[in-house]
C-alpha cells in the first residue's frame, strides 16, 4: 500500500513512524507546508518521502490518505480524498459537525471505501483489558464511569478543551458501555482566557440508571489521566500515568438491604482484595494502523470507523449546546446515537 500523511504537527511524526513500520506499506509520503517540519521528518525517518503539495497526495496514486490537520480542515480534505477513491484515516475529533461526518460516511459507503477515526485509546492495552473485563461481567452491572483528564496546557487555537481532550474519554466510554443507552447530557464550564472553554465538566445519563462524568481542564497544576469504572460486583481504576499496574481491580462494593422502612435499611460495605491484570504493551497506534490495513484487506469497517467518530462528534455538539446555556439538559436522540 501507498500512504500519504497530511499534517506533521504534534501527532503527525508518530503516524509516519507507525505506517513506515507496517509490512503491507511500501511507500509513505509526508506532507506539510512548513519546511521545518519536513526537515524534522527527514532527519528522523530518512525513508519517508516529502512534499508540500497536499493535492499530490489527495489526487495521487495512494491507497490511504492520513489526515492530521486542524479539525476544521478535516471535512474538506477527507471529502476530496474519498471522491478520489482513497481510504481515509482521520485524527480525532472526526469532523467539526455531525453533518460533515454524515456526508463523509455516505460517500465512503457509496464508493465502498473505509474510514478510520483515530480514537487511539481503543487500541490501548489497558482499555482492551477493561473491555474484556466488562464483557465477561467481571465488574457486574456498570453503575458509573468517572473520567479525569487534566493538565497545564496545551491551549488549542481552533477548539475548546472539550473538543481537544474529551474525545479520548468519550470514545472509551462509548466503547466500554456499548450495551447502555444514553439518555441526556449536561455540561458546565468556563472560558477564562480566549473565549474558548478551558475547563469543563460533562455528565451523561443512561436509561438504566448508569451515569458517566468527565472532567477536562487545561489549567491544572497537575497532570491526571484517570478513569474509574464502578460495577456492582467489582470496581476498577485505570491510571494512565502509572508506569506499572495501570489497572487495579478492587473487590469492593456496597450492598443495600432494604427493610420495611427506609429508616431501617442496612448498608453493608464490601472491601476485598485488589489485583492488577497484565496488559498488552504494544503501542496503541501500531495496533490501530494494523487494524485499518486489515479492515481494508478484508473489506470491512475498522473497529473505530466513521460511525464511531460520528457518535463522539454528536456528543461534542450536545456538550457545546449545554455549555452555551449554562448547563442546560440536552436530550440525546436515542434513535440517532448508536
Draw up the topology in text:
Layout lengths: L1 E5 L5 H9 L6 E5 L3 H10 L4 E3 L2 H5 L5 E4 L3 H13 L3 E5 L6 H14 L3 E4 L6 H11 L6 E11 L8 H16 L5 E9 L8 E8 L4 E7 L1 E13 L3 E5 L7 E11 L8 E10 L8 H14 L8 H19 L5 E2 L7
Parallel strand pairs: 1-2, 1-4, 2-3, 4-5, 5-6, 7-10
Antiparallel strand pairs: 7-11, 8-9, 8-15, 9-10, 11-12, 12-13, 13-14
Helix pairs in contact: 4-5, 5-9, 7-9
Structure description:
- It is built from 9 helices and 15 strands.
- Helix 4 (71-83) packs parallel to helix 5 (98-111) and helix 5 runs antiparallel to helix 9 (306-324).
- 33% of the residues lie in helices and 30% in strands.
- Strand 2, helix 2 and strand 3 (49-51) form a beta-alpha-beta unit.
- The radius of gyration is 21 Å and the shape is globular.
- The strands form 2 sheets. A 9-stranded mixed β-sheet has the order 14-13-12-11-7-10-9-8-15. Strands 3-2-1-4-5-6 form a 6-stranded parallel β-sheet, sandwiched between helices.
- It is of the alpha/beta class.
- The protein has helices at 12-20, 35-44, 54-58, 71-83, 98-111, 125-135, 161-176, 284-297, 306-324; strands spanning 2-6, 27-31, 49-51, 64-67, 87-91, 115-118, 142-152, 182-190, 199-206, 211-217, 219-231, 235-239, 247-257, 266-275, 330-331.
- The chain has 2 domains: 2-113, Rossmann fold; 122-281 and 314-331, Dihydrodipicolinate Reductase, domain 2, CATH 3.30.360.
- The model is unreliable at 334-338 (pLDDT under 50).
Amino acid at each position: 500500500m501507498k500512504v500519504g500523511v497530511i499534517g506533521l504537527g504534534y501527532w503527525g511524526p508518530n503516524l509516519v513512524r507507525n505506517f513506515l513500520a507496517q509490512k503491507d506499506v511500501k511507500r509513505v509520503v509526508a506532507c506539510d507546508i512548513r519546511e521545518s517540519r519536513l526537515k524534522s521528518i527527514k532527519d528522523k525517518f530518512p525513508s519517508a518521502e516529502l512534499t508540500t503539495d497536499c493535492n499530490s497526495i489527495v489526487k495521487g496514486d495512494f491507497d490511504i490518505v492520513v489526515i492530521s490537520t486542524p479539525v476544521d480542515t478535516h471535512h474538506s480534505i477527507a471529502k476530496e480524498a474519498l471522491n478520489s477513491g482513497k481510504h481515509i484515516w482521520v485524527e480525532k475529533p472526526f469532523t467539526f459537525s455531525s453533518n460533515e461526518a454524515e456526508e463523509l460516511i455516505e460517500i465512503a459507503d457509496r464508493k465502498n471505501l473505509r474510514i478510520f477515526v483515530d480514537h487511539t485509546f481503543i487500541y490501548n492495552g489497558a482499555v482492551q483489558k477493561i473491555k474484556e473485563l466488562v464483557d465477561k461481567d467481571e465488574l457486574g452491572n456498570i453503575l458509573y464511569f468517572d473520567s479525569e483528564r487534566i493538565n497545564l496546557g496545551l491551549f488549542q487555537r481552533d477548539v475548546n478543551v472539550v473538543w481537544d481532550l474529551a474525545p479520548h474519554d468519550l470514545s472509551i466510554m462509548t466503547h466500554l458501555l456499548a450495551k447502555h443507552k444514553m439518555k441526556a447530557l449536561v455540561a458546565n464550564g468556563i472560558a477564562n482566557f480566549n473565549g474558548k472553554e478551558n475547563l469543563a465538566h460533562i455528565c451523561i445519563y443512561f436509561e438504566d440508571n448508569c451515569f458517566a462524568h468527565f472532567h477536562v481542564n487545561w489549567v491544572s497544576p497537575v497532570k491526571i489521566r484517570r478513569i474509574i469504572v464502578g460495577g456492582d460486583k467489582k470496581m476498577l481504576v485505570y491510571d494512565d500515568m502509572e508506569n506499572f499496574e495501570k489497572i487495579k481491580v478492587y473487590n469492593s462494593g456496597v450492598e443495600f438491604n432494604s427493610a420495611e422502612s427506609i429508616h431501617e435499611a442496612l448498608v453493608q460495605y464490601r472491601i476485598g482484595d485488589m489485583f492488577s491484570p497484565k496488559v498488552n504493551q504494544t503501542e496503541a497506534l501500531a495496533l490501530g494502523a494494523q487494524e485499518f490495513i486489515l479492515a481494508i484487506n478484508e473489506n470491512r469497517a475498522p473497529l473505530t470507523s466513521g460511525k464511531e467518530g460520528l457518535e463522539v462528534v454528536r456528543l461534542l455538539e450536545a456538550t457545546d449546546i449545554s455549555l452555551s446555556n449554562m448547563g442546560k439538559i440536552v436530550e440525546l436522540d436515542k434513535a440517532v446515537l448508536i
